[in-house]
Amino acid sequence: MRTDVRRAYHIARADIIARVRSRKLLIFFAVVIYVGYLINSGSFGVFYTISNGPNVNGALTSHLVGLNAGMAGSAVMLLAGFYVLRGSIERDERHGHLPLLTSSQTSKPVYLLGKLLSNIAVGVLAAAVLAGAAVVNHSIYGVGATDPIATSWPVFVMVVPLTIFVGAVAMLFGTINVLAGTLGRIAYFFGAIFLLSAQSMRPETAVPSAVPTTVKALDIVGLTLAYDLTFESIQAAVPGFESSFANFGTGGSNAQTFRYEGGPWPAWFFAQRLGTVVVGLAVTLVAALPFNWFQATDGVVGKVRQRLPLDEARPETASNPPTPTDTTDSAVSTPSVGDDVTIPPVTRRGAGGFRRVLTMEIRRLLRGQPRWWYLGAGLLILVPTVIALTSGGTEGAARGLLSLVAVWPLFVWSQIGSQTARHGIRPQVLTSEYPVGQLVGEWIAGCLITMVVGAGAFAIAVATGGPTALIGVTGLIIFPPSLALAAGLWTGSPRLFEALYLGLWYIGPLNGGFVADFAGVTARGTSLGVPVVFAAVGIGLVVVAAQTRRVYMNLG
Fold this sequence. Notes:
There is one protein chain. Helix 1 crosses helix 6, helix 2 packs antiparallel against helix 3 (62-85) and helix 14 (353-366) crosses helix 20 (435-453). The model is unreliable at 296-344 (pLDDT under 50). The chain is 65% helix and 3% strand. The longest helix is centred in the N-terminal third of the chain and has 34 residues, at 108-141. The chain has helices at 2-20, 23-40, 62-85, 88-94, 98-103, 108-141, 148-174, 182-197, 213-217, 223-237, 267-287, 299-307, 330-333, 353-366, 371-390, 395-405, 410-413, 419-422, 426-430, 435-453, 455-465, 469-491, 495-510, 523-527, 530-555; strands at residues 45-48, 56-58, 246-249, 256-258. The protein is mainly α. The protein has a four-stranded mixed β-sheet.
């Protein structure tokens, strides 16, 4: 037992050292600090909506700032922590560490618990950074005396247990092949959104004592907790207040104000956080089942695929002995290579020009996608085209199809920008004939694939919305590949792009937020030219990415 604890500790220590050297963790902490500033400057926090009246905001006391910081930290950990915490197993596999660990007699549960300890350390550091920023900012912007304890401890109680759950899910996804890539990141995003939306199951007229137990158990961010803690303070400050949903954001400048000075936290929240920890530990142990030392992303799914006729080529086993042709002496079947054999010199490195680079980039982006993705893309092309040619479609159908087109090519866009770094071919690209052209070729290839996949939906949008619908089409074609190019080039990974893009897609095209409607789904966003702004931003990102590539060339 003691030996296993030491092994888990050293695995966690090595992983933390590797994380600290990564820019990704520094960017994450910078985001956490900025969130802390927004909270303490009054730009962000818990508020309540009142029918036929102004919203209700809380004065920035130390206790409310601590609650706001804990909620903000929980939201950041839930939505962005998954993309930061995952990847440690893949890193060990990429560097060849996993086979070495088997010789140390480290069991899979001990190894994964060590990785979980590293994730917990990241959560503790994030909570410490957020709590420190909250204390400093409250001394500047806050109301009343600054109480470091009241401001800090809610952050740790709310964020660290959630980190255990998120980190465990990230490890589980990393051990299952089908969830180790873009599909897993999309699946997690929608799962996180489901947990956030679960708070809407609470009846709006329910007082804290009448909130259903299911809603309390799913209070992953702390909205129900905030409602429970601040309810009496709001009743004292706002006559006639009965109940309302707790929201997290900006409540407006004309809002009424309540003053929360702290109080005992409900026992159900501590039970909920304890349950979150237990579930996280259980998920970690479950992740040991599909985890494979020598191919960490195969696991159970890979074993099933070996037993089903899904692969075109099956590995040879002892039951399939080689044929006599396979055992023919290589000296007889293949001519020997002697000194008189020469390799023709390469006289034209740029044969084929940029067109060949673009063709290769299109083939590279499309190659390796799962069969169901091609099936979905084919249906997304065919069905809207048939609708456009027959009935012309409706505005509702056009909005739904545009929202789907805005997310289906995500599997292709995710590869743009980061492939050279992930595959270790950056030096070869930088010394090639078209170092910047390869980058531009990636971007154009992503735009062309988007045009093809969305052709039918674009036709319906133009048929129902007129020529102005082309504004949205422009934004949808240009912006996503541009963001993928810049984020992938700067980070060497698709995770930043996927996290940013899924957030924009969820707010804009999916839910109709016009300020993020880069696809022209909403009439207001199209009339204000929001897609054009996103298209212009996309062009700017491509220019900046090209300049970055030139800098790499000069440094190399």
